[in-house]
Design goal:
763 residues, alpha+beta, Glycosyltransferase, 8-stranded antiparallel beta sheet
């Protein structure tokens, strides 16, 4: 009897323990449908409203904005909340219901996946009843982990389908508005009042004024820059923005939403237009009101951008200049999202492939948002621009899209259109391509969806921009190409061609197109051999600009180094040559210059360029008064430059990917590389949001040791690199000695589990 009682107590205790353990696993959070967070939010004219999707749908007479899911079989993702070391998901259960009541009762009347034994937490494809168009669905998910713990169900989420459902269409959020007040104001000598919003942003103006008459007109100066007297600059250089608004006042106290007239330069047929529910915008930081006897009660700014999570990523280091450059670049990415596509700033508002590539990488480094890149890629495929290299960059954008989002659906749909962007039709037998040998016929330009662009009817090599002769500058101006000599077969073009082949080979493999993958791999190998044979100077070991020149520009060498086209024996010579050229490229070119330097483990020189205070530097942008990255290093280098150009925002992705060393080794960061390259930087901390959760990396460095603390989210694993000085380095993990694999300038630790780890290298 006693034995039975003890057995009963043991079983009861086990059940209680199991229940207790189950409670230790928190429900999943950050639910996404087709990669969208907050698909159940509602806006009116860009401003958030406290309505459910159902309430907004019922008010059909009101024009509300909401994300609409157009896919017949959307994908679901979530974040696992489990801080224990090595935590992985082992199973999930998803419920999708046609009503909130059904979901609350755990009745998945459209889909109950049951308990699925799978670790996958991103990109789960809907597999229930056929979804109806223009219908609202409610869903939730629960998970199990590798410790036999079962979570409760997540908080419910909802989404609404589009009027027409398709095999695939990238989902997107509406553009949104937020109201901001000036950070300070001051009285000017002429008794005008200047209001400063702190940072430049694309927006609109709202003013409340009390007037004693209906015959007054308020003069309002709006702009991005201030003049020597401290007022809004009325005649700014380049295309730095300024507008004079004249507001007729009504008697009494009234609130006015001021309208900006459209600018012909950025509202033409190739520009992305602002939707009616938002209206026209202008980038501005300052507002100056002319002396008035009226009482200005309030002044506010509507800021317009695509949905952006300011807290998704953060970075801070021991270098104050680097911190300012991070803030400058991150703010640029948010502010320039104002059309919902990657555009070239305010002057044209046109998507360009080169802008999109840098914008994409820096967007991933600023916020866990992936659909702007997908939409921009889709747009650019069918709206090609004229530079040769930029056509090739479509393949780089496509690969980044898959690598960072883990969602290959957009690439799969565009795959037939991506192939011609490789420009294989322009190749000679050894694989090198040229735009200057008469092969650009009408069938070729049609295949890449290129007709005419700014007067160009065929692709032309660009290297960098502006080229020699300047843009509104004297013909003697050298441009940003470092004296590049253009020949029929161009080293920069073929470096991009090689990298595009690598990207499409990897994409073909992911798509199951094995025959294509093998072909593109062979083609890439052929191009690499031809590149080295044709462009390496046998006397200096550096990369020549082309076959029929001995000139060796920064661009030819940095692109070859960035894309792994340099033989090991030549790397020292090429790095030495790159060092002699400084920042002899545009802000666009620095993406590849810094990639090249960090890939070659030249972290100290790369950090010098990042934090330079010379005229050709990001610090000079700040010093000039801009709070977004500029189109050129300075207006002296490009007469029509603007102060809101995201192709200058490479530092934010370079800091994340290269300085802090956080990169995905497999799609959606399931396997994470942590390879910090601090150079002379003493300390830094990064938090980066991903689809799996936040990655945290922090280091402290001194002459005698390097300390690294890393947190990897659940359901991921890592490969960690630690700076290496000699074989006698002592490595510790959480205070205990650890053996690591030597790899050049690094110690490598593989198969690092999720959770928090602290390493120390004692020199």
């Amino acid at each position: 009897m006693l034995a039975l009682r003890n057995l009963f107590l043991t079983i009861l205790l086990s059940i209680l323990c199991l229940k207790t353990n189950a409670q230790l696993l928190s429900p999943p959070s950050a639910l996404r449908v087709d990669l969208l967070l907050n698909a159940d939010k509602v806006w009116k004219n860009g401003m958030p409203v406290e309505l459910s999707l159902q309430q907004a749908k019922q008010q059909s007479e009101v024009a509300y904005q909401m994300a609409r899911i157009a896919n017949q079989n959307p994908q679901f993702s979530w974040i696992i909340n489990d801080n224990s070391e090595g935590s992985t998901q082992t199973a999930y259960r998803i419920l999708v219901a046609s009503s909130a009541e059904n979901l609350k009762a755990s009745k998945g009347d459209f889909w109950d996946s049951g308990k699925v034994i799978k670790s996958q937490q991103t990109g789960i494809i809907y597999n229930g009843q056929k979804l109806n168009s223009n219908a609202i669905y409610y869903w939730k998910v629960k998970v199990w982990n590798n410790r036999q713990n079962e979570s409760g169900f997540s908080e419910p989420a909802a989404f609404i389908t589009d009027s027409t459902l398709k095999v695939y269409q990238t989902a997107y959020q509406p553009l949104v508005k937020s109201l901001e007040t000036p950070v300070h104001s001051k009285q000017l000598n002429n008794l005008n009042i200047l209001y400063d919003f702190g940072k430049d942003a694309f927006g609109q103006l709202k003013i409340s004024v009390k007037s004693t008459t209906d015959k007054d007109t308020l003069q309002i100066h709006v702009g991005e820059a201030i003049d020597a007297a401290g007022g809004v600059e009325r005649k700014p250089r380049g295309t730095i923005r300024y507008r004079l608004l004249k507001l007729p006042l009504q008697k009494g106290e009234h609130s006015y939403d001021l309208k900006f007239a459209a600018d012909g330069r950025n509202t033409g047929p190739k520009a992305i237009h602002m939707p009616d529910y938002i209206g026209e915008v202008l980038p501005f930081r300052y507002v100056e009101l002319e002396k008035s006897d009226n009482d200005v009660i309030d002044i506010q700014r509507y800021v317009v951008n695509y949905s952006f999570n300011d807290l998704a990523t953060s970075f801070k280091s021991s270098d104050t200049i680097l911190n300012q450059i991070w803030d400058l670049s991150k703010h640029t990415i948010k502010a320039t999202s104002f059309t919902g596509l990657y555009v070239d700033g305010d002057r044209e508002r046109i998507p360009y492939e080169a802008d999109a590539l840098i914008n994409q990488l820096s967007h991933y480094a600023s916020d866990a948002e992936f659909n702007m890149a997908k939409r921009s890629l889709d747009y650019l495929i069918y709206h090609a621009t004229w530079p040769t290299e930029w056509s090739l960059q479509n393949l780089l954008v496509a690969w980044n899209d898959y690598l960072y989002s883990g969602d290959i659906r957009a690439v799969k749909l565009l795959y037939p259109q991506l192939k011609p962007k490789l420009l294989l039709a322009l190749a000679r037998p050894d694989g090198l391509i040229s735009t200057r040998t008469g092969k650009q016929d009408s069938s070729f330009t049609k295949s890449i969806h290129f007709s005419t662009f700014n007067g160009e009817t065929v692709l032309k090599d660009i290297v960098d921009w502006p080229q020699k002769g300047g843009f509104g500058l004297p013909p003697s101006y050298p441009g940003e190409t470092d004296g590049f000599v253009f020949t029929d077969y161009n080293a920069v073009v073929n470096a991009f061609h090689y990298q595009a082949l690598i990207c499409i080979s990897d994409l073909a493999q992911a798509l199951g197109e094995k025959k294509d993958a093998d072909f593109y791999t062979q083609q890439a190998n052929k191009v690499k051999q031809a590149f080295q044979r044709s462009f390496i100077d046998p006397n200096t070991g550096t990369i020549k600009d082309g076959e029929n020149t001995m000139h060796s520009s920064l661009h030819a060498n940095m692109l070859a180094l960035a894309f792994n086209l340099v033989p090991d024996k030549n790397k020292t010579m090429i790095i030495d040559h790159i060092r002699t050229r400084g920042m002899a490229c545009s802000v666009y070119g620095t993406q590849f210059l810094l990639d090249a330097l960090y890939n070659a483990n030249e972290a100290e020189y790369a950090l010098q360029l990042l934090t330079s205070t010379e005229k050709r530097s990001w610090y000079n942008m700040i010093r000039s008064g801009s709070t977004m990255t500029t189109e050129a290093w300075d207006t002296d280098y490009k007469n029509n430059q603007d102060w809101n150009h995201a192709w200058g925002a490479a530092p934010v992705n370079i800091i994340v990917r290269k300085l802090m060393g956080v990169e995905p080794l497999s799609p959606a960061f399931e396997t994470i590389q942590i390879k910090p390259q601090p150079g002379s930087l003493n300390s830094a901390e990064l938090q980066l949001a991903t689809l799996h959760g936040k990655i945290s990396v922090g280091f402290n460095k001194s002459a005698t040791q390097f300390q690294l603390k890393v947190t990897l989210p659940p359901n991921t694993k890592g490969v960690v690199y630690l700076p290496r000085q000699s074989e006698s380095d002592r490595i510790l993990l959480n205070g205990k000695a650890l053996k690591a694999i030597p790899n050049g300038k690094f110690w490598v630790i593989r198969n690092v589990k999720s959770g928090t780890h602290s390493w120390e290298v004692r020199y």
